[in-house]
Automatic annotation (TrEMBL):
This is LacI family DNA-binding transcriptional regulator. SUPFAM superfamilies: lambda repressor-like DNA-binding domains (SSF47413), Periplasmic binding protein-like I (SSF53822). GO terms for molecular function: DNA binding. InterPro entries: HTH_LacI (IPR000843), LacI/GalR-like_sensor (IPR046335), Lambda_DNA-bd_dom_sf (IPR010982), Peripla_BP_I (IPR028082). CDD domains: HTH_LacI, PBP1_LacI_sugar_binding-like. It comes from the Bacteria. Transmembrane segments: none annotated. Keywords: DNA-binding, Repressor, Transcription, Transcription regulation. The keyword Repressor applies. Residues 4-61 form the HTH lacI-type domain.
């Protein structure tokens, strides 16, 4: 037998299809029905094994406990988005929410309205599409701070500035006075936050700081030796999605024959790429799984309780590591 229709239930119960629709819809309009008729319809539905059409249920209700996830970054290949999705899944399950994944198509973002609200992940989510959703009052949360759209996009992000400042403070306590910070040319909010934290802490500690924007190309032994001649004793490296900058730095240090940390201290503002060997690199953890869970809670507060969205910053636990040492 195919899908059971409301007409089938009406035939078995001996009532009109309109009556079946009213009963199965919970009689939200307050139509007067006898209890006997209601029970007869429910008995017929149970007898026939009726299962409500989920699409029809969605159209008839303003809420279906379904949260969307639209990711514009690597999520299923071990990239930085993977632990975020794990956190999203765990918190959604805890709150009794189902998830629906939307592919990253900038021209079709409007389809996320099939869900009660949507989480967005990745720095390339188009601002115009987010602005349209905000204007329509559709609940959204962006994982990662957005500096565009007048700061109106509700977001959850890591406190990169405070965590980066803490690493610089560690270097200062170890006696370092000349520090160089390597960061990629891309000017993203996390990159700006990291640099702000580094500059603020360096100024407070009286350090001489040099910021170099590079993707790692051309970074070699001669460059490292030149920096060492200028008195550099510590090197900070920005965490990036590809890890290319960190790998280039490690390769240059090796070619220059510089020992870490006995000759030069090294720290990553975040964590090094997976599979990195040798001593544990000093830095901090980006709480990606916690970001996913916090984003779901923020979206649920909007959808379920109508709470006005307020962006959040999560602390980044420090990683002591073994690559920061006192200056000889």
């Amino acid at each position: 037998m195919g899908r059971v229709r409301q007409a089938d239930i009406a035939r078995v119960a001996g009532v009109s299809q309109a009556t079946v629709s009213v009963v199965l819809g919970g009689n939200r309009t307050g139509v007067r029905l006898s209890e006997r008729t209601r029970l007869r319809v429910l008995a017929a539905a149970e007898q026939l094994g009726y299962v409500p059409d989920p699409v029809a249920k969605l159209l008839a209700s303003s809420r279906n406990n379904l949260f969307g996830v639209c990711t514009f970054t690597s999520a299923f290949t071990g990239g930085p988005g993977h632990p975020v999705l794990a956190g999203i899944e765990a918190e959604a399950a805890a709150l009794g929410k189902d998830l629906i994944m939307f592919t990253a198509d900038p021209d079709r973002i409007g389809r996320v309205r099939l869900a009660d609200g949507c989480l967005f992940l990745g720095r390339h989510v188009p601002a115009a599409a987010l602005g349209e959703l905000l204007a329509a009052g559709f609940p959204i949360v962006h994982i990662g701070r957005r500096s565009d759209l007048g700061g109106r996009v509700p977001s959850v992000d890591a406190d990169y500035a405070a965590a980066s400042a803490e690493v610089v403070t560690r270097l200062a306590r170890a006696g370092h006075r000349r520090v160089r910070y390597l960061r990629e040319p891309d000017d993203t909010p996390p990159a700006r936050d990291r640099e702000h934290g580094v500059r603020t802490a360096a100024a407070e500690a009286g350090l001489t700081l040099t910021v170099t924007r590079t993707d790692g190309a051309g970074l070699g032994a001669a460059t490292i030796r030149g920096w060492r001649t200028d008195g550099m004793t510590a090197l900070l490296v920005e965490e990036t999605e590809t890890g290319a900058l960190f790998h280039a730095t490690r390769r240059a240090l090796c070619e220059a024959g510089v020992s870490v940390p006995s000759e030069l201290s090294l720290a990553v503002l975040g964590r090094p790429p997976s599979g990195t060997t040798g001593p544990e690199i000093s830095g901090f953890e980006v709480p990606r799984r916690a970001l996913g869970r916090a984003a779901v809670r923020l979206l649920a507060a909007q959808v379920d309780r109508g709470v006005a969205p307020a962006s959040r910053l999560l602390d980044c636990p420090p990683v002591a590591g073994e690559t920061i040492a006192a200056v000889r």
